[in-house]
Amino acid sequence: MGVGIRTHELRKVFTTPPPLAAAGARFAGGGGGGLFKKKKDAKPNPNIVALDGVSLEVAPGEIFGLLGPNGAGKSTTVGILTTRVRPTSGEAYIGPYDAWKQQVDAKRLIGVVQQRPNLDFSLTAREILLFHAAYYGISGAERHERANRLLDQFQLTPRADDMTRGFSGGMMQRLSVARALMHDPQVLFLDEPSTGLDPQTRLLLWGIVREYNESGKTILLTTHNMEEADTMCHRVAIVDHGKVIALGTPAELKASIPGGYLVQLKLSAVPESLIEKLKSLSGVTEVRATGNSVDIYAGRGGSLIGEVAAAAAENSADLHDVHIAEPSLENLFLHHTGRSLRQ
Question: Residue 120's closest CA among 175, 79, 196?
């Protein structure tokens, strides 16, 4: 019987700068990584809302994705479920165990790969795996067998007895995932697992994660990579500013985009008469204008361009650029928020 995950009305308000790996809101200096930088003479903000009532239910044996831009609250959610970040209110369960009231029981069921590798550089790759297994009471013979198998699976055997301080970022990430699997957890948390990985390493990691899931294990991953969410996840929750704004299978979410296709225009001007003309075109379900840019949601893509160009000319608007996007999770996020997942 697999182990699921559940949160109910999860809320987190930071009253001090949050830890880097658990930052769930944008801070001064940009959102990439959630780094808190204190501006000179700036008054501290005592209430930084990272999560604002997040309720999720992940079925046993499911690969579930939290998709959203940096600072959306993804890592904070994982931090609470893995007992590294204390929630302000709400509930978080790993199987039958309250993650905060029954921490020891919950921790026995989980494996965690944090957003940034936290390996001990004074140890070899093999020692890191063996010591981790020892923490969980795994016998000497068993932990050596598991370490050898995982080192081979993650293509680390040639460097197994080298100090990790000389490892590349991709090797460190592979070793971090291998370490999380050493005690065979029922639930695996992967926080931005493919960030910074080359395509070959990313595909290797995806294959190993799928294989682990096929053994009945539950996996929750956070990402802002649309391809990763679309390819890997059975279901996805799209989060922004600490709230869930969409939930479903990747196919369901893409199908919910008005019209499916997104045609983006850059023009010299956007008169109201042009907006009305674009709305009247066959297959167009929604038109949004921001400055000199127009987003058109429609049931067709390329066949619409001729009519769009003619409408622009009729309304004295020079068409500078056209971009057509097929139905995607990126388009869904853009439709809900007006922003790209990568902003």
Answer: 175
Q: Which pLDDT belongs to residue 60? A: 97
SS3 191: strand
94 to each of 10, 58, 188, 289, how far by Cα in Å? 14, 10, 11, 44
- Identify which of 143, 146, 162 has the alpha carbon closest to the alpha carbon of residue 154: 146
CA 278, 340, 10, 17 dihedral sign is negative
Which amino acid type is present at position 206? W
Which domains can be identified in the chain, with CATH numbers? 5-102+185-253 (3.40.50.300), 258-326 (3.30.70.100)
Cβ atoms of 236 and 67 within 8 Å: the answer is: yes
Neighbouring C-beta atoms of residue 20, cutoff 10 Å: 14
89 closest CA partner among 24, 206, 8:
8
The span from the CA of 23 to the CA of 137, in Å, is 32
Task: Note the helical H segments in 190-328.
Answer: 199-214, 226-232, 250-255, 272-279, 305-314
Helix 169-181 and helix 140-153: axis angle, to 10°?
140
Encode pLDDT of 88-131 as tens digits. 999 999 999 999 999 999 999 999 998 887 899 999 999 999 99
Q: How far apart are CA 31 and CA 27, in angstroms?
A: 6
Q: pLDDT tens digits for 205-219?
A: 999 999 999 999 999
Nearest-angstrom CA–CA distance, 205 and 317 = 48
